[in-house]
Amino acid sequence: MAFARSIHHLHPLPPVSNTRGLKPSPLFLGSIRPDSHTHTITRSSVSVSSSAQRRSAVAANVSDVKTKPAANLLVTKEEGLEVYEDLILGRVFEDMCAQMYYRGKMFGFVHLYNGQEAVSSGFIKLLKQGDSVVSTYRDHVHALSKGVPARAVMSELFGKTTGCCRGQGGSMHMFSAEHNVLGGFAFIGEGIPVATGAAFTSKYKREVLKEDCDDVTLAFFGDGTANNGQFFECLNMAALWKLPIIFVVENNLWAIGMSHLRATSDPEIWKKGPAFGMPGVHVDGMDVLKVREVAKEAIGRARRGEGPTLVECETYRFRGHSLADPDELRDPDEKARYAARDPITQFKKYLIENKLASEAELKAIEKKIDEVVEDAVEFADESPAPSRSQLLENVFADPRGFGIGPDGRYRCEDPKFTEGTAQV
Amino acid sequence: MASIFQGIGAATSSLSSSASFETKILQFNSLRSVSGRKCGSVVMRAGGANMDSGSNKIGGRADQLVTNAVATKADTQAASTASKPGHELLLFEALREGLEEEMERDALVCVMGEDVGHYGGSYKVTKGLAEKYSDLRVLDTPIAENSFTGMGIGAAMTGLRPIIEGMNMGFLLLAFNQISNNCGMLHYTSGGQFKIPIVIRGPGGVGRQLGAEHSQRLESYFQSIPGIQMVACSTPYNAKGLMKAAIRSDNPVILFEHVLLYNLKERIPDEEYVLNLEEAEMVRPGEHITILTYSRMRYHVMQAAKTLVNKGYDPEVIDIRSLKPFDLYTIGNSIKKTHRVLIVEECMRTGGIGASLTAAITENFHDYLDAPIMCLSSQDVPTPYAGTLEEWTVVQPPQIVAAVEQLCR
Q: Can you point out the beta strands (E) in A188-305?
């Protein structure tokens, strides 16, 4: 489809008539991104224009195009409910995190995902167990979408030993070997090479070990990261070796207080894909169905061995960068505009209007999720905090890395060693 | 896995066809020579990590180790490799041999780095491997250290066993982010869910007028990173053994090689052997003073040792090999015997390996010392280009002799 067109037109680039990013005026104060729903559609490399007609009107927006839903819907009822549940789980969980933080149950840096749920649900719900997800510090919802139980994530946030990383990772380091969540990284851009490595393993298994492996990797990161060297280096390597990876840029326009437009010479991140030889796609990240469509194609491409894709999702975070961020720089109008495009409201409307679900069913899901999250909090509360002996466990996969002590035994064999040789 | 390293064990060695192993300089023809040598069973030679306490293990273990490093060693302990003649090769060939044996043994082992594939490695450590094992297994990367090191880490997390080559150790400064944040820490931060069995290797150290940036000693920068192990090889024998041990280890290991040591020649055993990563090597047993060293400085020390022996001193020289963690057992036993310590290293004075070693020894063996620990390190300067200046940056044998004389007064 659209990707095929993107590939054929890589050199030279297809002329793009409408540019989203207006050049900031000298008196630039904040985001001046036009509220152009139509702009978005025509710009996303032709891929979504057809679907715009198929889909019913999204959210309460400026768009005056309200088409009747066509016969072929984009999701089945099952899929729709699964996605809806995931969206709600993401939102309720993050709201609960905020509550728990202010009650003193978790500390440090906590970055919430409110408003961006469509990207996580749109992409990750299409993955298999064997596929990998790599994220940044805004990773709670990525972990949840991939299948990590809410209990495990909440316990991890509380720093309890039942957390997915035994309390040793925290908010910014969610890992799960079982669900192939490869983190959770605090420094931006740090996870992209790791994701590239996971994709490399997939290709290696297929080509060197001759196994039947079509696992793909998703690397999530933000607009700020798209200016980082690791991003470009990995785009190059992934395209060079046709690695099965999808680079998903969650462009929420703000890197803490730095507006994307103030930090980037060319704010259209999707354009950077073709520069390296891969398709670059822009999609409305507030609409889970649009994201899902683009994701399907990108994932399909990767599975078939056709190489990486760069997907830029235009999205927004309703809360501040982290719970410590006073969030004073962003224009309240901008926030209001995006709040009106809340992915959950949009999708709920879609489900109901297309008779995929009834109000009652959706309410039931919301209630269920409320219970799940409450249960997660209870579980985390009741879980034990790590004991002293856990401090020195798992520093090394092979604990002989702690060396041979003066008495001749490996220090890790010393029963007192795990009680801490350092003064902790 | 622990059993591999615990002594020679029950592996029976069939000393079959020893006559077929003729002494020959290894012409590196990878395909034939590796398979040719691996006939019969494999004898796992441990570095002698015998954990029976009580008996004096130093002398015992020395017999098991090949202690005749290079020609500087005065008294060669012949026949320490039983009656097998072994084969002679250069250090970079020994590294290649170890690497190739491991790649042959385990299909998950792969190499990534700049010019490792078609070029064969800038120091020829990976020569011939890409032709043999495919471009994907010996991967030529673009010049993006941070990212391909991170890629190696991601690959290691998902099941592969990559070896990352830094063309020069100094280039790995660009990968510091990945090495520090991900390589060392991810096993712990993930609560033990992901292991990172990666080997990061490359040549470092002061060469012949290579200039400041190509003459760096990164062991001091990396030593604080929790979760990694560091080893430094110095002879073909320990280069091969440590390479194999590092690849087999599930921990991330940084293997420091030295630019000037790649052409050292030595006879190494034909049978397969793996050394112990955490162990130090007794180079020359002695009574008067313990000299701790590693990598290239070992040879300066041995050269000084000749002079010292002529002057009537009996230095005990230990190549610590394991830079992190230190083998405090071997070191401690030595100190308990000699009561004097001299550390000779190529690292900088400030915050180098010697500094950490001094602290570790003081903490653990203070009561056994008859004199303060002396540490000879390189000057805290960026290595100058001029030959004379460069010579004065690193420790030279006369300085070592003078230091020993001072300590043993």
A: 217-222, 245-251, 254-255, 258-259, 280-284
